[in-house]
């Protein structure tokens, strides 16, 4: 991800091993050439197996979805250097009581910077996790309710630029699942998602990514 002012870039490095966590690489961006220069230090530790990285629209906070330890890592951005500092606490769990596992995969921050949404494949189905963002610290707090159901093996989630609607692409078909796009309306006060009455609209086989145009019409 690139910060909204084009100053810094961040890359989530997915591979981890038994002795070390995964990392985020941090760069400054040359405003003339676009060339990236590693910060000092060049990396910061994140959770295990981060599959996605997101930044808030004001360029204050960075988040990763860590599949192998079922967490979201949270960081603040130094506005001068671009270096990330873990918040306190450094992560929030995506585990749900009664579930054997929770594989958080993709996440996004809504256009207002107030809410974060995360897709996860659970033991018994799949959910979108919903959080409010503390505007001072960047810490995440689950909404009430904390999750909403989605389709099988959800991949990317996006919120329309208008902030009114959210969409999830579901990769798994078979049984009660259908490849397609789950559709939601966003409560502007709480950030809670409500399934659209149309629920899932069909897509091709194994969809993975989705985007909404800047006018929020398509």
Give a brief rundown of this model.
Helix content is 0%, strand content 54%.
Outline the secondary-structure elements.
Blueprint: E1 8-13, E2 23-29, E3 36-45, E4 50-55, E5 61-66, E6 71-77, E7 84-93, E8 102-109, E9 115-122, E10 125-133, E11 140-150, E12 154-159, E13 165-170, E14 180-186, E15 193-202
Antiparallel strand pairs: 1-2, 2-3, 4-5, 5-6, 6-7, 8-9, 9-10, 10-11, 12-13, 13-14, 14-15
Describe this protein's structure.
By secondary structure, this protein is mostly beta strands. It has no helices and 15 strands. It has strands at residues 8-13, 23-29, 36-45, 50-55, 61-66, 71-77, 84-93, 102-109, 115-122, 125-133, 140-150, 154-159, 165-170, 180-186, 193-202. Strand 9 and strand 10 (125-133) form a beta hairpin. The two termini are 23 Å apart. The relative contact order is 0.12.
Oligomeric grouping of the chains: single chain
Based on Cα principal axes, name the global outline.
globular
Low-pLDDT runs of 5+ residues are: none
Q: Could you spell the SSE succession in H and E letters?
A: EEEEEEEEEEEEEEE
The overall average pLDDT, rounded, is 90
Q: Structural class, from helix and strand content?
A: mainly beta
Distance between the ends: 23 Å
Integer-rounded radius of gyration: 17 Å
Strand arrangement within the widest β-sheet reads 4-5-6-7
Q: How many H/I helices? A: 0
> Count of DSSP E strands?
15
The level of helicity is under 10%
Reported for the largest beta sheet, the result is:
4 strands, antiparallel
Q: Strand content of the residues, in percent?
A: over 45%
């Amino acid at each position: 991800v690139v910060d909204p002012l084009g100053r810094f870039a961040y890359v989530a490095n997915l591979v981890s091993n038994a002795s070390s966590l995964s990392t985020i690489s941090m760069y400054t961006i040359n405003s003339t050439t676009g060339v990236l220069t590693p910060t000092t230090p060049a990396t910061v530790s994140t959770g295990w197996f981060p599959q996605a990285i997101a930044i808030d629209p004001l360029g204050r906070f960075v988040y990763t979805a860590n599949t192998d330890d079922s967490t979201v890592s949270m960081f603040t951005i130094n506005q001068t250097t671009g270096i990330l500092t873990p918040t306190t606490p450094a992560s929030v769990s995506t585990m749900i009581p009664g579930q054997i596992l929770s594989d958080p995969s993709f996440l996004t921050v809504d256009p207002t910077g107030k809410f974060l949404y995360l897709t996860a494949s659970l033991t018994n189905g799949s959910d979108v996790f919903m959080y409010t963002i503390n505007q001072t610290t960047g810490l995440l707090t689950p909404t009430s309710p904390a999750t909403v159901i989605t389709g099988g093996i959800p991949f990317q989630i996006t919120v329309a630029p208008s902030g009114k609607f959210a969409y999830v692409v579901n990769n798994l078909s078979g049984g009660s699942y259908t490849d397609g796009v789950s559709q939601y309306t966003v409560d502007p006060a709480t950030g809670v998602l409500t399934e659209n009455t149309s629920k899932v609209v069909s897509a091709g086989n194994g969809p993975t990514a989705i985007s909404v145009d800047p006018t929020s019409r398509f």
